[in-house]
Amino acid sequence: MLTGSILAHEMMHAWLRLKGYRTLTPDIEEGICQVLAHLWIESEIMAGSGSNAASTSSSSSSSTSSKKGGRSQFERKLGDFFKHQIESDTSVAYGDGFRAGNRVVQQYGLKRTLEHIRLTGTLPF
């Protein structure tokens, strides 16, 4: 789960470059990348809840998609811990950047937030 969140974060950096986003300040760029990592962890924790996918212990498939329906309590707690680490980071770029980015994504949505960042290089306030 931690590896996946790191990949989500790093892929967001790549996406920003591929989409032509200007050079962003570290708090904006690292913050929005941390928002994506946080969203990825949330999706992994919630994935398949209410799904008919079998749990990992009884699944005949070893695919990742079948695991999503059966997150163990340990995996959910681990995900909550990783989310907490992002939420409580004390650094300016990663911590403050995440909290500011997460606040505006909650208010305006990810798409509108990213459009605003692309146009202005700042978060909407």
Automatic annotation (TrEMBL):
Name under which the protein is recorded: Protein DA1-like domain-containing protein
Biased composition (Low complexity): 49-67
Transmembrane segment boundaries: none
Organism encoding this protein: Aegilops tauschii subsp. strangulata
InterPro entries documented for this protein: DA1-like, DA1-like_dom
Disordered: region residues: 49-72
UniProt-recorded Gene Ontology molecular function terms: ubiquitin binding
Domain Protein DA1-like: 1-120
